[in-house]
Design brief:
A hairpin with a 4-residue loop joins β31 and β32 (994-996). Strands 1-7-6-5-2-3-4-8 form an eight-stranded mixed sheet, sandwiched between helices. Strands 17, 18, 23, 24, 25, 26, 27 and 28 form an eight-stranded mixed sheet that branches. A six-stranded parallel sheet has the order 11-10-14-15-9-16, sandwiched between helices. The chain is 41% helix and 13% strand. The radius of gyration is 37 Å and the shape is elongated. By secondary structure, the chain is an alpha/beta fold. The chain is built from 39 helices and 33 strands. It starts with a strand and ends with a strand.
């Protein structure tokens, strides 16, 4: 008997000496590893045969599962440790990380076919582990053997305190054990042959693996916890038949992914924000979700801005213009502003009888309009009304929010929208998400990170810099409750063969015609100087109240806000109105002389009325009192950022009834003087503007030439369609009137939709809003189906921003902005009507008309108007509206507008800073769910597999290798920032540089998806090239070295983030566990990107 302690004497060495040519080897052990085979390859090649019994059930058929259990869609990882150990136990990590597994597996499988038989214990009864080497010269028993691995042979370190065994040559012992082994081997009731199954299992390692299989094996590892949480309740129920609906059939693949993800999020968290970029069809995606809930007999409400109501009512009405009439949608549609109305009608519904608390699902279009404003004068804001009246009361309400810009530059915007989903109780969501920090704290930190980022120099202020500054919990939160993809993402990472592509964007055309060619008319700058001289005293009567009488009015009209901590003065509201009026005058001057003239005339009437009242008071003491509510009547055609601003303005001037000011309480001498000064300026401007007749209007003349050129030389063969946008209905009316004769001359039809007046066209027949859009874009709006008997089409459509969102007008290839909107986002939204995936146009053209001044002057002018006074925020918070560093940053804004002159930019590039697109991991989870339905065996694949794909620099795939690793010490998140912990992905370039580090989970998964998804078989040419370079996987030193460098790179990133965390607020990561090196990581799989 000989003692083998696996320290001074090793079992492996003993077997090398003891396995003589022609010997028979019998082993009963818990597992078998190819690395044990490799260590003894020479000796095993000489043996006559190996008989191996797995001491516990391994590689045996799973017992029949209870049918009921099977029908429940549950995904679990079975305990396959013993089977996976075939390719290296957890203590053979060092060997696995040499990446030679493929070559060893191929040689081992070949040897097994020739020399080995494997059987497995099929009973629950345990069996002793031992090995017997039988030869003509000697027979040796080795006991007690745990497994047949490199650790058991003594070549690798395990976790056992001791690994002592005995080599016994005593015949009485050896015969006893051989007899025991043979009895079990022959007993078919106890063991089953698993040799074939093992060989097949091994072939998964050395055959060429399809890229798709490796992608899904990776996803299975990353998201198996998600699968454990999934049950029938939170996945769309196919039995509803939602996949058979017409709307579902119309969706593109990426929209279906979004719809499935939204339903999952609504069922799990009660809320979701869909923030896909402009032109990706959010309306259709939302309609598919609505249909799903309607099929489950739920009642649905769509809340939208007034200007977009037509978009939605078209789908729930029995109209010929409704493409989904067969789906019989029956959701209700109401406007954001209806929430606070208690009487009257809206879109055919009596507001006094609406049962607001009875909706199971509320879809909020343009949800960014709901910001949590403080109430004033005990009056609820619209946000609070929505929360109390719709969401908290009555049945449990799910909330789907649609917005292309859910975040502006305050994360509180996003927080307030999300609060609608968790009914304002953030603890509920915190519990579900299991985040380290509370929801409020997550947002506070995110805001702090953003503010620091906003102070960086423009060239350092990149999206990557912001993403690095935001923490893990923030991404986790976003991932759970938002779906946001950019068009770039869809183009790069989705197969769009069936859909078509986005059209090519031509470089924008920018024109700066003067106001007029008339020599005697003042220019833009001079007009602005005169406008700057306006006091607009008519809008600020409170400022002229005598000090002795002020207290009376303050008591009546000033408002406590922030629980009485501060006061919002009526004087502040008036200043806000003065500022809005100045901006409006300037915007209307930019738009058209006609719109500007109408506003001046309205202002003049208001001034005249006030002066007449003063004159009457002076004459006979008649004091009618001044009704401030009248001030808003002068202007009926505003262009405000969102429709809520105007309602808030109206609210501000009707606090507690109309504001009445007695002339006797005012310094009417000063007021009269200032009113006269304003009147003098306005009369002068009106005289100047009277000289600019339509014949003298240089911008109009330029537009007519532009249209004729486009019609004579279309940019796509035969396409003469032009979409003409303006911010103001008055400008649209003017253009319709002036362009109608030109269209008639070219035998083309012209239409106009403004939202504030009835739709109008030269086709006649009284067509409504939707019908005109159908005539303008017959293919995308399915005219053949909707208006089959109308032969006419519109070629020129003039519209305001009532059609800048939620419309697909992609038949058109030419969009003209007759005035440049001050918010670049609006320009991109307008262009999104024609810049859409699936367009048949090869290219599309954007044309912008700018004021006749240099860009520097234009930006400075905007700055002067916007910063003219730091006013109290109109949202009545009483906070000073100090514009953020970014909005105030002239250089930043100038850069955006300059780019707009040179190129069409994407929304995510122009948003002042925060873009939440492309951060979520939802589509990967949905990919996995769909795949598992048809490929349940993905769960049995061994780790360490690889696939080879071709490099594709356009998709970000440069030659190198992407490693997927698992940190074996799952409690250690090495930098508290890896979203996939304990899994780590890292992309190493062939030259040893880190192409994408492990903190950028989303970009890494995007590239893996692009490289692998849909590729169901390996690329033979690429694989052959790789196999030649590595001698069929034997020479993997280059890739093994890259893996080593990858681990070191992760350590370096950790050290850098440790240093950063020491000098920033919040907890530091510097004192947390270190990464010791390779042996802490297990390789899940790797993808070679072959150049």
């Amino acid at each position: 008997m000989k003692l083998i302690d696996n320290i001074n004497s090793l079992l492996g060495d003993e077997l090398k000496n003891g396995l003589l040519p022609g010997a028979k080897l019998k082993i009963a052990a818990s597992c078998f590893s190819i690395y044990a085979y490799e260590s003894l390859k020479q000796q095993l090649e000489q043996v006559d045969e190996l008989e191996f019994i797995f001491t516990a059930p391994t590689f045996v058929e799973e017992e029949a599962v209870d049918k009921l259990k099977k029908e429940k869609r549950e995904f679990h990882i079975p305990d396959e440790g013993k089977e996976r150990a075939f390719f290296g136990s957890e203590f053979e990590i060092q060997l696995k990380n040499k990446l030679t597994q493929k070559a060893i597996a191929r040689e081992c499988a070949d040897w097994i076919r020739r020399k080995a038989k494997f059987r497995s214990n099929t009973t629950d009864a345990p069996m002793q582990s031992f090995a017997v080497a039988v030869s003509s010269q000697q027979t040796t028993l080795y006991q007690t053997l745990q497994g047949f691995t490199a650790v058991d042979l003594g070549y690798e370190k395990g976790n056992a305190i001791s690994n002592v065994m005995f080599a016994i040559e005593e015949p009485s012992f050896t015969k006893e054990f051989i007899s025991l082994f043979d009895q079990v081997w022959q007993n078919q009731g106890m063991v089953a042959d698993v040799t074939e199954r093992i060989v097949h299992y091994m072939s998964t390692v050395y055959q060429e693996n399809p890229p798709e299989q490796i992608y899904f094996q990776l996803l299975y590892n990353l998201f198996n916890e998600f699968l454990e949480d999934i049950n029938e309740d939170v996945l769309p129920n196919d039995k509803t038949g939602y996949r058979d609906s017409l709307i579902w059939q119309k969706l593109f693949n990426y929209q279906r992914d979004a719809a499935t993800g939204i339903i999952n999020k609504l069922e799990t968290y009660n809320g979701c924000i869909l923030a896909d970029s402009v032109g990706l069809g959010k309306t259709f995606t939302a309609l598919a979700v609505v249909k799903y809930y309607e099929l489950r007999n739920k009642s649905v409400l769509v809340l939208c801005p007034k200007k977009l109501a037509e978009n939605w009512t078209n789908y729930n009405s029995n109209f010929t213009t409704n493409p989904f009439v067969k789906d019989r949608f029956n959701f209700d549609v109401l406007c954001h502003t209806d929430l606070q109305r208690t009487k009257g009608e809206s879109l055919g519904m009596s507001l006094s009888r609406v049962n607001w608390g009875n909706y199971d699902l509320v879809v909020i279009d343009e949800s960014h309009n709901f910001r949590n404003n403080q109430a004033y004068k005990e009056k609820e804001t619209r946000y609070q009304t929505l929360m109390n009246k719709v969401i908290r009361s009555g049945v449990k309400t799910k909330v789907l929010m649609l917005s292309a810009t859910p975040v502006n530059n305050k994360f509180s915007d996003l927080k307030n929208q999300l609060a609608l989903a968790y009914e304002g109780d953030s603890a509920t969501l915190h519990k579900q998400l299991d985040t380290h920090l509370g929801i409020d704290e997550i947002f506070k930190r995110a805001q702090k990170a953003f503010n620091n980022w906003a102070e960086l120099e423009p060239e350092q202020r990149t999206a990557t810099a912001l993403l690095t500054a935001l923490d893990f919990d923030f991404f986790r939160l976003l991932d759970s409750v938002t779906i946001a993809r950019s068009r770039r993402h869809i183009q790069t990472f989705y197969d769009t063969k069936d859909i078509g592509r986005f059209p090519t964007r031509n470089k924008p055309l920018s024109f700066q015609p003067p106001l007029t060619q008339h020599a005697g008319v003042i220019g833009f700058n001079e007009i602005f100087d005169q406008l700057s001289g306006l006091r607009l005293a008519v809008y600020a009567p409170v400022s002229y109240i005598l000090p002795s009488r002020m207290a009376k009015y303050e008591a009546m009209y000033d408002t406590n806000v922030h629980g009485g901590k501060s006061r919002l003065r009526q004087a502040d509201r008036e200043k806000a109105l003065q500022r809005l009026m100045t901006i409006n005058l300037l915007k209307r001057l930019e738009s058209s002389v006609h719109a500007f003239r109408l506003t001046l005339q309205g202002l003049r009437r208001l001034l005249q009325e006030a002066l007449n009242n003063i004159a009457a008071f002076n004459r006979n003491g008649l004091d009618k009192g001044l009704d401030e509510g009248r001030l808003l009547v002068a202007e009926r055609d505003w262009d405000l950022e969102d429709e809520g601003a105007f309602d808030e303005l109206e609210d501000a001037f009707s606090t507690g009834g109309k504001i009445k000011i007695n002339l006797a309480d005012m310094d009417i001498v000063s007021w009269e003087r200032h009113l006269n000064d304003d009147l003098h300026i306005i009369d002068g401007l009106l005289t100047e503007m009277a000289k600019v007749t339509p014949q003298q209007d240089a911008k109009l003349a330029h537009l007519k030439n532009l249209l004729q050129q486009k019609w004579q030389n279309p940019i796509n063969p035969g396409n003469r369609k032009v979409l003409l946008f303006t911010a103001f209905a008055d400008t649209a009316d003017y253009l319709y009137e002036q362009l109608a004769p030109l269209c008639q001359q070219h035998r083309l039809h012209l239409g106009k939709v403004t939202g504030s007046s009835a739709a109008k066209s030269t086709v006649g027949k009284g067509y409504d809003f939707q019908s005109l859009l159908t005539l303008f874009s017959p293919r995308s709006k399915e005219k053949a189906h909707i208006l089959p008997n109308e032969s006419a089409e519109l070629d020129l459509l003039i519209g305001t921003d009532c059609i800048s969102e939620g419309q697909n007008l992609q038949d058109c290839d030419y969009l003209v902005n007759y005035d440049i909107h001050w918010n670049p986002v609006r320009i991109i939204q307008r262009f999104g009507r024609v810049d859409r995936i699936g367009s048949l146009n090869e290219c599309i053209q954007l044309v912008n008309y700018w004021p006749d001044i240099s860009l520097d002057e234009y930006i400075n002018l905007k700055e002067r108007v916007e910063n003219r006074m730091v006013i109290s925020d109109l949202t009545s918070t009483g906070d000073d509206n100090v514009l953020t560093a970014q909005a105030n940053d002239v250089a930043y804004r100038k850069e955006q507008l300059k780019r707009l002159q040179e190129e069409v930019i994407d929304l995510e590039d122009v948003k002042t800073g925060i873009s939440i697109t492309d951060l979520g991991l939802n589509e990967f989870r949905m990919d996995l769910l769909n795949y598992l339905e048809t490929h349940p065996d993905i769960t049995h694949l061994p780790n360490g597999l690889h696939t080879v794909v071709a490099a594709d620099p356009e998709r970000g795939l440069i030659p190198g290798v992407i490693f997927a690793l698992r940190n074996r010490h799952a409690g250690v998140n090495i930098d508290q920032q890896n979203r996939l912990h304990p899994y780590y992905l890292i992309y190493m370039a062939d030259n040893g540089d880190v192409a994408i580090n492990h903190l950028q989970a989303k970009p890494l998964l995007d590239r893996i998806r692009a490289a692998c998804k849909g590729k169901e078989s390996a690329d033979e040419v690429i694989c052959q090239r790789f196999n030649q370079a590595t001698q069929d996987g034997r020479k993997m030193a280059h890739y093994s070295a890259l893996l080593d460098q990858a681990i070191h790179a992760m350590v370096a990133v950790k050290e850098q983030s440790d240093i950063d965390s020491l000098f920033s607020g919040g907890p530091t990561t510097a004192l947390k566990n270190e990464i010791a090196g390779l042996d802490q990581f297990e390789l899940i799989n790797f993808i070679v990107v072959q150049g």
